[in-house]
Amino acid sequence: MTTTNHPIAISVQELVKSFDKVMAVDHLSFTVPKGTIFGLLGHNGAGKSTTIDCLLGTQAYQSGHVSILGEDPIKVRKKLFQKVGVQFQETAFQSQLKVKEICQITHSLYERPRDWQKALETFGLADKKQAFVSTLSGGEKQKLCILLAVMGNPEVIFLDELTTGLDPKARREVWRYLHLLKEQGVTIFLTSHFMDEVENLCDQILILKEGKTIARGTVQEVIEASGQKNMDEAFLYLMGEEF
């Protein structure tokens, strides 16, 4: 696997998390260098969300070691909150809030937040400032989710299926913005079911199946190791599925 001299933003070593007798994450290890985009892939139920919960300190785990920016997320959650952005799903919004109001509320939570009005312009939502969240389209709500995740000027952001529901133009707008964040040194940890998105964005990927690592490396390394032509075919092959 390709190595890098960048400092490490996220470190996971031998992580184990089970629910009763079901092993959700099975001795998972990986590192994410600062200023890179890392993709955690797998079908629903593969252990992606559980891994993220353990990383964010919202789930206790049985064994292993997790750190973000050199800190234990369970012990210093409040401190890390100022440095880590998380994309909440649109269902977490109060529908009777206006876009302006939810931006102002989120802005107030951080010590060094972004200018929320400029952020709305960047995401093409400036004309929706006075609109109620409930009136936004699915794509507009998704862009708002991502905007709020970066409101605190985070060093690390977690994005879960970030472009689900977006049309092709909006997806590419989000990709462009994520590349810009990467250029600014932000570390991006994402999950996605779209392999074209993975190919466009990710420096490193890890594929999970039933909580275990079945492939990791750059996109090109994973494709070559699978003997397939592209990421779509490689993913299906590694999952043991027909295509």
From TrEMBL:
| Record flagged with keyword ATP-binding | yes
List, for all copies, the residue spans of the domain called ABC transporter.
10-235
Family annotation (CDD domains): ABC_DR_subfamily_A (cd03230)
Superkingdom to which the source organism belongs: Bacteria
Its keywords, alphabetically, are: ATP-binding, Nucleotide-binding, Transport
Q: Which GO terms of the molecular function aspect are on file?
A: ATP binding; ATP hydrolysis activity
Pfam families given in the database record: ABC_tran (PF00005)
Coiled-coil segments on the chain, per record: none
Similarity comment text for this entry:
Belongs to the ABC transporter superfamily.
Q: What name appears for this protein in its UniProt entry?
A: ABC transporter ATP-binding protein
Native species of this protein? Vagococcus allomyrinae
